[in-house]
Every structure is written in structure tokens, then in C-alpha cells.
Amino acid sequence: MEFADLIPISKLDGVTLSGACYKTPVDGTLCMTGHHLFLSSRKQGVEELWLLHMAIDMVERKLNKESPGGVIIIKCKDFRVIMLGIDNTDHFNCIAQSLEDIVNMEVLKYKYAFYYRPLYPILEDGWKIFSPEDEIIKICPIPEPEWRVTHCNEKYEVCSSYSRLLIVPNSITDDVIKESAKYRDLGRFPVLCYKYEAKSGCE
Fold first, then answer.
1. Phi–psi pair at 180, nearest 5 degrees
2. 172-203: per-residue pLDDT in tens?
3. Residue 39 Ramachandran class (φ > 0 left, ψ -120 to 50 alpha, else beta)
4. Domain named Myotubularin phosphatase: which ranges (predicted)?
5. Contact 176, 152 (CB under 8 A)
6. How do residues 137-176 score in pLDDT, each as one tens digit?
7. Strand 166-169 and strand 11-19: pairing?
């Protein structure tokens, strides 16, 4: 599937942008791509719209009662409400339908994070920026008699919401953890999250 199939109108002049986050309505050209919505008046010092489709929570249509067209109300995940006024009913419905189709698309590979391909070489591996081993040492220097590091969740098979390395009581084996997790909500099991050195307390 190509995004062009979902966007019969990719550019439309004469669209009015308004909302609580804009001091005055902005008249300009609306452009829609597979992942972004743009509106620009091409005037110096005038606010513009640059919105990622993933930031949209809901799209509503409000037809004008006495004139053609209507207002597309876009409710964003950051609580912004953006309104697009379009004075042609066919264009109004076409843009609204395109937005609804793209926002409600559930195919993961077409989401922006998976679809985007940078045009420059990646110089560092982002997966190596954060080291679970280093973070664990900050919480609880290992080895300690009461605690140990477990690799039982290495592939996130025991609990999908826990990290792959965890600190657990030294007296409990990995087999016991795996079995006990089967009887707990979402496979969660007791782990060390914080250690208060002054009073030897932990959570």
C-alpha cells in the first residue's frame, strides 16, 4: 500500500487554521503527507502548523449549516485542539477522510518510526547508549550477599514490562522466579528497584 492511495488531495489552498493556541486565524495552504500535516501562509512572522499524524488523537467533522464546507476539528494527544476551515464540501470530506484513515491505521510498519529512513549515515548505535549493567551497579553494587543479578528475563519472556537484567534476592533461583511469575499479574515478580543505604532499606 502507498500513502498516495489514502491522500487524493495532498495540497489545498484557502484553508483557515484556528484554535486556542493561535492568536488569530491563519489563512494558508494545507499540505498532507503520509506522516505530517502542514499549513503555511508563506508570510513572514505568521504562525504555521507542522503536525505529525501520530500526535492526533481524534478527528471530528462539523459541516457548515448555511454555506459549503465545514470545520475539521483535530484533537491532539498533547491536549491541543486545532481547527481547519475548508469552504468546499467535497474537499472538506476528502481531507477529513484522509486524516481519519491515516490516524486510525494499525499496520505497524507504516508508522513513522518504522517507515522513516534517514538520508545520512548513523554514527552510533542507540541501543548502546544506555547500559543496564551500569545502571544496576548504581542501585546495588554487585556482588552483595543478599542480592544477585538475574538474566531470566533476557528475552522478556517472563515479564514483558520488566527490563532484561534485574536484581533479585540471592536466595531465590531463576526456576522459582519463572514458576512464581506464572501466578502473578502480567508475570511480574519481586525485584529490587531502590536501596536506601543509610538504613539498609529497599523497595
1. -70, -30
2. 899 999 998 888 888 888 888 777 766 666 65
3. beta
4. 126-203
5. no
6. 777 666 677 888 888 988 888 998 888 888 888 888 999 9
7. unpaired
